Amino acid sequence: MSLAPAAPQWIDTHCHLDAREFDPDRADVVARADAAGVTMQVIPAVGVFNFDTVRTLAHAHGLAYALGIHPLCVGDAADEDLDRLEQALQTHKDDPRLVAVGEIGVDLFVPGLIAIRPRQEHFYREQLKIARRAGLPVLVHVRRSSDAVLAGLRRIDVPGGIAHAFNGSDQQAAHFVERGFRLGFGGALTFETALQIRRIAATVPSSAPVLETDSPDTPPQGI
């Protein structure tokens, strides 16, 4: 007797399920994803103001979450928020749904953020240290900043992670993979003009790519 192969199960490694765009039908979104084979989603925080929200959503829907301070939010963050992050990680260290520190990193695309690059890099490095002490991987934001993010990882070793929305070069991809990182590819990969990202996704080791929607951002082509 032959058994039919099990349906594939996928992990959305980066979904901002707490975004207000999902307020009207959040439970339905999770149900539709599950029906399509996306049986797990990771909800990253972006600042201390939504730490409780992402944790609550993860428990309510049987998903996973990460805690961190996003580079887009460091301008409004207080230095004490780093202490609050470390305390939250300690408080919930036995929570199996807490899987990473994130979303953290550096953004060198938004002009206003380039002006506060030193503060971005300070928060990024300190959160790497926090992740190392917590023994957690990191979800890193690398928008036009792969070299800056890699520089931090060379100085502060962490237990792996994901380069979210990877958009760098072959050499940068190789450096992330050498450090035990996975490369997040999402909606950008579906664009016919994304030739370099498509080529890199096809040529890195098969264990390197992970899928992500970055919902509600980075929609695929045609949506």
Biggest sheet features: 8 strands, parallel
CATH architecture, by name, is Alpha-Beta Barrel
Helix content: 25-40%
Radius of gyration: 17 Å
Whole-number tally of structural domains: 1
CATH domain topology: TIM Barrel
Distance between the terminal alpha carbons, to the nearest Å?
Answer: 43 Å
Number of strands: 8
What coarse outline follows from CA principal-axis ratios?
Answer: globular
Percent of sequence in beta strands: 15-25%
In terms of per-residue confidence, which ranges show pLDDT below 50 for 5 or more consecutive residues? none
CATH superfamily: Metal-dependent hydrolases
Strand sequence of the main sheet, in spatial order?
1-2-3-4-5-6-7-8
CATH uppermost class: Alpha Beta
How many helix segments?
8
Task: Give, in order, the helices and strands.
Answer: EHEHEHEHHEHEHEHE
Fold and architecture overview:
It is a single chain. This protein is an alpha/beta fold and 223 residues long. It has one domain (10-211): TIM Barrel (Alpha-Beta Barrel). Helix content is 37%, strand content 17%. The protein contains eight helices and eight strands, in the order βαβαβαβααβαβαβαβ. An eight-stranded parallel β-sheet has the order 1-2-3-4-5-6-7-8. β3 (64-67), α3 (80-91) and β4 form a beta-alpha-beta unit. α3 runs parallel beside α5 (117-134) and α5 packs across α6 (146-155). It is globular, with a radius of gyration of 17 Å.
Could you list some keywords that capture this structure?
223 residues; TIM Barrel; 8-stranded parallel sheet; single chain; alpha/beta
